[in-house]
UniProtKB/TrEMBL annotation:
Its main location: membrane. InterPro entries: AAA+_ATPase (IPR003593), ABC_ATPase_HisP-typ (IPR030679), ABC_transporter-like_ATP-bd (IPR003439), ABC_transporter-like_CS (IPR017871), MetN_ABC_transporter-like (IPR050086), P-loop_NTPase (IPR027417). It comes from Terrihabitans soli. It is a peripheral membrane protein. The keyword Metal-binding does not apply. It comes from the Bacteria. This is Amino acid ABC transporter ATP-binding protein. One of its GO terms (molecular function) is ATP binding.
């Protein structure tokens, strides 16, 4: 189980997350939806502690880190928790001077200390999973955006994280290329990969998520199944936002 409890996040005087508590059950997919600036990226970055919560608790599996305005867990604990997560960004962020396989191998070799041989075997397995077995030795510049994002997904999965965090994974892609990425994430969802996705992509949310969370102005407004949130929202604010996605 992955859980956030009573998370507050301030940047200077401005509080951008207000008392967010959410459970992300193992083996399930959660889609975070909400207007630009509502706090989706900050929330994702709080799960892997790229942002330090001002206060609250972050739990992943057996690791539980408690933050208060006056005390923070030590760096080793933070890195330990972060290593249980994988992150995919809107803009792919591949290393341009590494091939597809080398991008996937990088963290295994430099962070986990795997041999290059072992890391390459794992990289080829993962590239096969994202349908890129034949592009292992291509440079990022030789790949389409959809292919680059699939390499980024393989890279994030390489160390077998407990949760895959995706920040608008299809937003930078043309519809056709976005579809390849939706297909790959849907297949991962069917296999039981635990994922949290921030997205404006209705098809992605509907194809993958068991849980949809609507966030507005840094607070959770409504949580439900895709059918509940998309077809029968309880809050007027949710209904208005859903209209804008269609
Ligand atoms: P979303 O991903 O939903 O568009 P964000 O999490 O990026 O929203 O942003 C939420 C709010 O936090 C916005 O008002 C944004 O300007 C603010 N914010 C995000 N990151 C920072 C930062 N590093 N410093 C100051 N304000 C930030
Ligand atoms: Mg964002």
């Amino acid at each position: 189980m992955i859980a956030l409890k009573h998370i507050h996040k301030r940047f200077g005087a401005v509080e951008v997350l207000h008392d967010v508590s959410l459970n992300f059950p193992e083996g399930s997919v959660t889609a975070l939806i909400g207007p630009s600036g509502s706090g989706k990226s900050t929330l994702l970055r709080t799960i892997n502690l790229l942002e330090t919560p001002t206060s609250g608790t972050v739990e992943i599996g057996d690791s539980k880190l408690v933050f208060t305005p006056t005390s923070k867990p030590d760096r080793t604990a933070v890195l330990g928790l972060r290593r249980q997560t994988g992150m995919v960004f809107q803009s792919f962020q591949l290393f341009p001077h590494r091939t597809a396989a080398e991008n996937v191998m990088e963290g295994l070799v430099t962070v986990l200390g795997w041999s290059k041989e072992r890391a390459r075997i794992r990289a080829l397995e993962l590239l096969d999973k994202v349908d890129l077995a034949d592009r292992a030795d291509a440079w990022p510049s030789e790949l389409s955006g959809g292919q680059q994002q699939r390499v980024a997904i393989a890279r994030a999965l390489a160390p077998s994280p407990k949760v895959l965090l995706c920040d608008e994974p299809t937003s930078a892609l043309d519809p056709e290329l976005a579809e390849e990425v939706v297909d790959v994430l849907s297949a991962l969802a069917r296999e039981g990969t635990t994922m949290v996705l921030a997205t404006h992509d209705l098809r992605l949310a509907q194809n993958t998520a068991q849980q949809v969370v609507f966030i507005d102005a840094g607070a959770v407004v409504e949580t439900g199944t895709p059918a509940e949130i998309f077809a029968n929202p309880q809050q007027a604010r949710t209904a208005r936002f859903i209209q804008t996605l269609r």
